[in-house]
TrEMBL record:
The gene is LOC107315856. It comes from Coturnix japonica. It catalyses: an organic molecule + reduced [NADPH--hemoprotein reductase] + O2 = an alcohol + oxidized [NADPH--hemoprotein reductase] + H2O + H(+). This is unspecific monooxygenase. GO terms for molecular function: arachidonate epoxygenase activity; heme binding; iron ion binding; oxidoreductase activity, acting on paired donors, with incorporation or reduction of molecular oxygen, reduced flavin or flavoprotein as one donor, and incorporation of one atom of oxygen. The keyword Manganese does not apply. Its main location: endoplasmic reticulum. Coiled coil: none annotated.
Length: 491
């Protein structure tokens, strides 16, 4: 046998050592969650329908179980399917799953600097500050509840001026809800005729349209290619840039008129924090701009869409609307505005609102998380920084917790004696350390806007009720109601 030579032998020994080390490392850390075999570059694009990711995930889960791996293009992600596995991850191992996984579209639009998409110490400090400021907001002359009641009154008068003519409520509801976050963040509401405000609302409406396009759905799979192609995805990015410019102008005006002894709103509170902690890289003009955008977009779109969907569902189910009317009349009457203290005495209305949020399943896939360290879950190894999708839809649509989940039924949240029934599966705002920071505000807005409008009006459809379709328009991000018109008839 020919002698291989010392260089060759040394090379073989090194390769063997590397292979043994790799094998040991793999065996020690365990295997990663299984999943469909990806194709180079495009990943699992052929197994995932961007227009209905939930159905794709459902089929994959049937084969691989409640935890599996998918590839969005070349990027790997782990999917959690079902209440038990999501609870185990986000609650029992909350710190490990507290990172934010940034999809390419998120990275392009939000740049990872605001409260929603940041990570690490920046996220912790921004979130803590935002939660404290929103919770303890007492800088203005009115409390949050009073602001919502006042805005609901303005909205009722605006609806009354339609004189029972049918119209699409999307703009009215977006105006009303947006003014709440404006009053908290900017220090004041906008008149409905304000030109800048109208332009801003129009941008938000356009964002929703662009978000639903197939190009936008595919952007997270092929960002490098789609960056060079025109389409709605590019318009969405430019539209958010316009919102950025709008908010930046307001921030500059606040900086010019800022008085540390008299903070007026969230922006002033943030500027004050910046001045107190000069040199702290977490509190900058950029992070203020992005955090404000996060609060504004999240605080407007989610709640206004929920209300819009609520009225469509009530058009389909007049018997539900009638029961709400009776409960409002019994508890609140017609001579004062509904308040949050009324909710505990209105179990049916409370159940309807919960069922609306469960049924519409607004963000079925949930915003992506990321593990902050190498993590073991159900015996599977998940490497640090891996993106994780803790799905909400399988929880809100769980057959055991909610019999006939595809059916709208307020009974899902009512006990046999008519009292309100709580459910651990009610997670429309997600759960864990990344739970929606505006959950309390959103719940207050939905209750007060809905009850105030129904205190004053009865809904009248413009088509036969049997022809009303309450099935959502499904996108890769959210479920939204189909467009419709409604007449508001004074009671």
């Amino acid at each position: 046998m020919e002698f291989l030579g010392w260089p060759t032998i040394l090379l073989l020994v090194c390769i063997s050592c590397l292979l043994i080390a790799a094998w040991r490392n793999t065996s020690q850390r365990g295997k990663e969650p299984p999943g469909p075999t990806p194709i180079p570059i495009i990943g699992n694009a052929f197994q995932l329908n961007p227009r209905d990711l939930m159905e794709s995930f459902k089929e994959i889960s049937k084969k691989y179980g409640p935890i599996f791996t998918i590839h969005l293009g070349p990027k790997k992600a782990v999917v959690l399917y079902g209440y038990d596995i999501v609870k185990e991850a986000l609650i029992d191992n909350g710190e490990a799953f507290s990172g934010r996984g940034n999809l390419p579209l998120f990275e392009k639009v939000f740049k990872g600097t605001g409260i929603v998409t940041s990570n690490g110490e920046t996220w912790r400090q921004l979130r803590r500050f935002a939660l404290t400021t929103l919770r303890d907001y007492g800088m203005g002359k009115k409390g949050i509840e009073e602001r919502i009641q006042e805005e609901a009154h303005f909205l009722v008068e605006r609806i009354r001026n339609t004189h029972e003519k049918p119209f699409n409520p999307v703009t009215f509801l977006m105006h009303g809800v947006s003014n709440i976050i404006c009053s908290v963040v900017f220090g004041d509401r906008f008149e409905y005729e304000d030109k800048k405000f109208l332009d801003l609302i129009e941008m938000l409406e356009e964002n929703e349209k662009h978000q639903n396009s197939i190009q936008t759905q595919l952007y997270n799979f092929f960002p490098t290619i789609l960056d060079y192609l025109p389409g709605p995805h590019i318009k969405l990015i430019k539209s958010v840039d316009k919102v950025d410019a709008f908010i930046s102008e307001i921030i500059r005006a606040h900086q010019e008129s800022f008085d540390p002894s008299c903070p007026r709103d969230f922006i002033d509170a943030f500027i004050n924090k910046m001045q107190q902690e000069k040199g702290n890289s977490h509190f900058t003009v950029e992070s203020l701009t992005r955090t404000t955008i996060d609060l504004f977009l999240a605080g407007t779109g989610t709640t206004s869409t929920t209300l819009r969907y609520a009225f469509l569902i009530l058009l389909k189910h007049p018997e539900v609307e009638e029961k709400i009317h009776k409960e409002i009349d019994r508890v609140v009457g017609r001579d004062r505005s509904p308040c949050m203290a009324d909710r505990s005495q209105m179990p049916y209305t409370d159940a309807v609102i919960h069922e609306i949020q469960r049924f519409i399943d607004f963000i079925p896939v949930n915003l992506p998380r990321a593990v902050t360290k190498d993590t073991i879950l159900r015996g599977y190894f998940i490497p640090k920084d891996t993106m994780v999708f803790p799905l909400l839809s399988p929880i809100l649509q769980d057959h055991k917790e909610f019999p006939n989940p595809e059916k709208f039924d307020p009974g899902h949240f009512l006990n046999a004696n008519g009292t309100f029934r709580k459910s651990n599966y009610f997670l429309p705002f997600s759960t864990g350390k990344r739970i929606c920071a505006g959950e309390g505000l959103a719940r207050m807005e939905i209750f007060l806007f809905l009850t105030t409008i129904l205190q004053n009006f009865t809904l009248k459809p413009v088509v036969d009720r049997k022809d009303i379709d309450i099935s959502p328009i499904v996108t890769s991000v959210s479920n939204i109601p189909p467009p419709y018109e409604v007449s508001f008839i004074p009671r």
